[in-house]
Amino acid sequence: MYRLLSLFTTILLSTTVFCEVKLPRLISDNMVLQRDTKLTIWGWAAVGEKVNIRFKDKTYAATTGADSTWSVVLPALKAGGPFDMQINGSNQVVIKNIVIGDVWVCSGQSNMELPMERVKEKYPTVIAQAANPNIRQFNVATTYDFQRARKDYDSGNWQLADPQTVLQFTAVGYFFAKALYEKYQVPIGLIKASVGGSPAEAWLNEDALKAFPQHLEMALKYKRAGYMDSIRARDQQVRNDWYQTIWQQDQGLHDTKPWYDPGVNTSDWKTMPVPGFWDEHGLKGVNGVVWFRKDIEVPASMTGKPAKLLLGRIVDQDSVFVNGRFAGTIGYQYPPRRYELPAGMLQPGKNTIVVRVINNAGRGGFITDKPYKITVGEETIDLKGDWQFKPGTTAPPLPSATFFQYMPTGLYKAMVSPMLPYRIKGVIWYQGESNAGRAVEYRTLFPAVINTWRQQWHEGNFPFLFVQLANYMETKDQPGESGWAMTREAQLKTLSLPNTGMAVISDIGEWNDIHPLNKEDVGKRLALWAEKQAYGDQKVVYSGPLYQGMKVQGNKITLQFTGTGSGLMAKDGRELKYFAIAGADKKFVWANATIEGNKVIVWSDQVPQPVAVRYAWADNPEGANLYNKENLPASPFRTDNW
């Protein structure tokens, strides 16, 4: 009897799950539909059910097929709105506040994912003025699947931009949309489908991975039953054991007084300058917990009010205490440390700030060239300088966990597949940092992403606009090799694909932060490419100088460029920097360079018979200053293939 009841329940559920009309989450209130193209509206219902759609005074009919799916095709529509859509089957669904405009997919890794909230202190006016119901975003939550291509998302809805909701918009995407809306006055919809740290292969389907056997092999492993469960259990056990050990052994938590107590005796604590890394101050190779403490004098004028505590960035995790009271915590190294202190937490006179830092692996400490201060209104207390410190406990490095979302094809199946029937204008893409160690492979891997998406969307060669990697890491005194430069070159080569575009941003990065805060120029430079590739503007200057060819003339090399706009210039008005030249011995030296018309002449007395030139060929070519007069930077390049 139990088995019969179970079977009956299963049959009942399978026949009623689509008895009512159900829509994918993308087709919902506040959605943006792509203008000037036929549109597919689809969903699910009981097999054979008749479904009618009423939109803009016209009715469209469909019958649900054997797979419980129905769809209708709407004719191309002009920009406008808002409109409502009524869908009738055994039930009725009304979708409200629809606008018709341009839909852009915003994908890649963390620099596309990074929300306006992370840059709110840089762009307070932009955020305050963000009320625009014609700029909207659908956020696809991070998820992955190795078994099947999903048909829908588990969550998500369309949000209209306003000063509150915009904080969760992709910052690059918002500035991109803002620039396009200001020029064309057409509603812009952003589908944000980005995952921090994701490599390109995670965004490919299995067919595309056949060209990359090592990635296909990995994808097939993750399809095996129980394979992920065993890895997840192992990783979780290792992580739990590591954190439990440092918790149990941390003297700062289990001493007579916890070390965040202002009354702790610190006579045996050492000092080091903050910001900085503790391996330079007697703790080389130390992982685990280190406590930091600083006493400051706070004037009465800064008390009794809310305050902001800025602690730059900390590697890897921190918990902060002010006068013995918990003020906040952040669990990984990349977010800026911005803690809101309630009124009353600061007191007149002496105040004690304590930071418990957990470092999992590598160098622990405080990232330099970041803000370290307390602010109340216009008053500020600088927190840089000597801090006391003492290890709470040491531990071996925490073994790396498996990030399933980084494995081949997982993101494609879960985050791209559900939106393939949705019509789009194009894609903006910011990714490559996670593939920088495999730059040669990226020459084919990244184009494979573009080609695969275009094939699967069945919309032809829609615009695919991407961001070249920013300048990052420490600068070098001499010319040399660079994985990031090689990756930029792979991105540059991808411009050979039709209807692509590349925003060069090697002038706006931050040497100590893989997430530069300047997202406005990134969005605007992508928008310039969109004006050309997506909107057909033949007059816009959309690119900075791009290397085209060279000619050796005696002891000099003449370089030709496209993207010269109204002329070449040195950004700061000084002589050109970051050109290097080499002879047949392949030894590069810094070179002289000068602009002549729309060409650049390069030479060095050390290289009488030059063979090759490189420009901005470094992880961080800070100071590279070749631009066009429209203030767009030249892409880094090399003339050799060494």
Automatic annotation (TrEMBL):
The keyword Hydrolase applies. It holds the Pfam family SASA. Keywords: Hydrolase. Residues 102-216, 411-509 form the Sialate O-acetylesterase domain. Transmembrane segments: none annotated. GO terms for molecular function: hydrolase activity, hydrolyzing O-glycosyl compounds; sialate O-acetylesterase activity. One of its GO terms (biological process) is carbohydrate metabolic process. SUPFAM superfamilies: Galactose-binding domain-like (SSF49785), SGNH hydrolase (SSF52266). The keyword tRNA processing does not apply. Gene3D superfamilies: SGNH hydrolase. PANTHER family: SIALATE O-ACETYLESTERASE. This is Sialate O-acetylesterase domain-containing protein. The lineage of its organism: Bacteria, Pseudomonadati, Bacteroidota, Chitinophagia, Chitinophagales.
